[in-house]
Amino acid sequence: MWNDNETKEDLIDFHYLVNSINSILDNDRLVPSTIGIYGGWGSGKSSLMKLIEHENEKKDNIVIKFNGWLFEGYEDAKTALLSNLIDELIKNRTWDGKAKKYLGRLIKKVKWLKVLSTTSKIGLNTYLSSSTDFDYSNVLNEISNINVDDYIKNIQSEESELIEKGVREFRLDFAELIKETKAKRLVVLIDDLDRCNPDTIISTLEAIKLFLFAEKSIFLISADERLINYAVKKRFPELPSQEYDVSKDYLEKLIQFPIRIPSLNESEFETYINLLFCKIHLETSKFNTLRTKIFELSPEQNKILDSRLNAENINNYLDDVPELLKEDLILSKQINPILVSILSGNPRQCKRFLNLLMIRLNMAKSKGIELKKNVLAKLMLLEYFKTESFNKLVRSTYESDDTVMKFLESDTDDVPNTFKGWQTDIWLQKWIDIDPKLSGIDLKLYFYFTRGDNKIDFISNKRLSPEAKEILKGLLSGTTSLKNKAISASESIPKSDILIVFSEVTNRILTEEDLKNRGELNKILVQYCKKHEILISEYCAFIEKTPESILMPANAANLMLITKDTGFEQNAKTIIQKWTDSSNTILAKAAKKQLK
Q1: Integer angstrom CA distances of residue 498 from 153, 528, 529
Q2: What is the per-residue pLDDT across 546-555, written as a single tens digit (0 to 9) for each?
């Protein structure tokens, strides 16, 4: 298994991104500046930051890390960043008298800001009366010779002269302190900003611009750009985005150099998976030598669209390839084409998929059962991407003793009607064609270790993108215009998000007790599925497994509407035929009418 934390061990070949960022850091003409490292959750942002940290610690640079998420809820974001920065500067150097003077003044200013941030929210008098252990006179001494009357008078005005003076003084003192460090650069790494709430995101960005934008300083901000855009729009809700994209302008003013981490393509994903397998099968020294060879290819060898490490070329790098590694490289070749499309080239999701694969193998081993890794991996692909189809296969396996896979893999006309649609679904056909073949294998042993999992762990941990969240919110809203807008917008989100939104809506249908609301949800689901061909098989599987007691008359017509002129039309008729004998008399009547 593999650790899921950030690492300075590069398995993705980030050197070209590191070199690009260092070219900015080392250029005197480009400082001070702010660099944005943008990428989705799990794309490798934190690991890239770790690599940059490691590179710059070798130079005469001061490198300081700040994680706003750790301070969220405990402190104001601005003062948390300033306090952390000054604390780390104190630890980083031995300071002379002149520098100590600036440090002392900065410490006082941070304390002043802490008081200001607290009292400006609830009023000075309220704060003092409610905090019995608040040493009023001591704090006033610590925040310089500020006139008390002026302080109280101006405390709630963010545009006050007092605040402006404090900001100016802090910037000047900070700039002088940085000069005194004698370091070439002050490099501040701000990570996990996209985990914070919108207010914290904005406060952190503003703290950089207001207080810290000084000579020699470089700030690297790691975040999902979409979440920062969302935070900016929340901050300025009065500006309609369709007329003026305030978030784009705001970011361009704060971040001079955007660096975007691309999703891994199919060849890069295969290399990444294969390196993960090499890491667990090879000794550390052997693995590091292999990794270096792979990422230091000559220009003639460096074909960026080809897999750098695979089952075919492993012998070019290793004299003695362990048998287990050979098996895993073949497994990687089999599952990679589908896995990369499912996970959108996301390294963390890949690692979680493989970790879960290993967990389930170990669970079986602890019961004395040896599962085949490639069989389990193939089943997990279906479980991840086509959850309803996977559940349908599980039910069928227990009911018909594994005969379904035999028919599906032989591509005959003997496939049960409820599975005929699988033969025309491109994704399902691609999955069926992956080796190994599953007919003749007792799949019940494999399903035993997935029982109770309608969605496996890494699905539930996967965060919807802000766009997908907005789409889900629109689908569940009360207005027709918002629903229609959400359905149209859903064409632009990744396939994985399309499936998760589908699951969210179906879960609500199953738990909704109000008939009117359930009817509306069914209508929304049909409209959503009509927009996405990939959902037809999932809709059929969902409808088939739904208790007839909660199905509605419209479900019969909807099922035929969605499957019309598709490979699932016969499947739909089979399901509706079954409903004609339902104890839900209203559904039975609607089914009979539909079949006529």
Answers
A1: 54, 9, 10
A2: 888 889 999 9
